[in-house]
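We treat protein structure as text, and this decision shapes the records that our systems exchange. The remainder of this section carries one protein's record, kept here as part of the documentation:
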Amino acid sequence: MSSKRTIVSWLMFDFANTSFSVMMVTFAFPLYFKNIICGAEAWGDAMWGVSVSVSMFVVAIISPFLGAAADMSGRRKRFLLIFTLMAVLATVLLGFTGPGMAVFAALLFIVANVGFEGGLVFYDAYLPEIASERSIGRLSGYGFAMGYFGALTILLLLFPLLKGGIVLENSQNIRKSFFVVALFFALFSAPLFLALRDRKKTELPGRTFMSSIREVRYTIMHIMNYPDLARFLLAFFFYNDAILTVIAFSSIYAQNTLGFTTSELIVFFMIVQTTAIIGSIVFGIITDRIGPKRTIVLTLFIWCAVIVMAIMTREKTFFYYTGLLAGMSMGSSQAASRSMMARLTPKEHVTEFFGFYDGTFGKASAILGPVIFGVVSVQAGDQRYALASLLFFFILGLVCILPVRSSSTALRAVSRSDA
């Protein structure tokens, strides 16, 4: 197991990058994009959904190849640094966007989100390296808890700038908040790059790239040699689609359907982050006790209850209770999923397989949901119908994960002789 310094620096990266997630993907920027950049037009929902989906599609395509290249070159930290800088610099540039700049802002967001989501491939791949098998669930849970604590911190920090509302009159303060997010992300991610070291490899960059292509091709052709991993990834594809869509549209839904003010939204997201911290820690411990599969099944039932409650909600007060439950299930399902992946992943291909988890399946799953949500919202004229469509994805995920064995003994090593 790694030193405490290494573990703390790994946890601090979660603290840092979730500031981007809550502000630029979940809360402030989606509202700024639709209400100010797109002038509160209905097509803003669809354009936002497409922007999220395109960014996820890019990550889905490149992640396995970059993961394989990182495994073979030993330059995992270098890849993580490049993607982190992409997210930080593009977030800074988003601070200069305004009304009528929808296409430019969408392109910048795509670059920023590719940097954020792509970096998670290399970040998550450190988990089985720094944690023992007995502590993977807890450490994964602690990581998400630190992330939600970071989200809570950035919301408190930016409250003075955002309390004026996500409206044109307050656009200058909103843009300032994007600069703060970029600084927060850069500052608190720095300890990871100082504490971790790349493994030295001798392969040349060009040779590594070609080898990574062959490696990914081999993995795709032989993925069924890992039946439990394949089933889990399919389940993850469906239920993660729904979770990421909830995250991407929660602030827009709360404001447009339920009439939340910006101050009420800030309070709401603080509540969500607080229960997500609790859920990540508690269910991280539970995962090590009952196993990640049972934990995920439990959280999927909770997610179905959350969707039903949100659809039935007519009063703001009841939506706060829905947020409490959503936060608990969000932290726990993500932490348990990462733990499950770490247990089922062959160590010699850890970054490559996390490329499939975070990239191909994790991000490709987010392509369909946001687009469907945006299109249904525009066509039906009611976001409740769009929200109801997510139940289908949660149920499919539940059906797919039931046959999966989560024990480490289920992992079948694949050798080249199997080809």
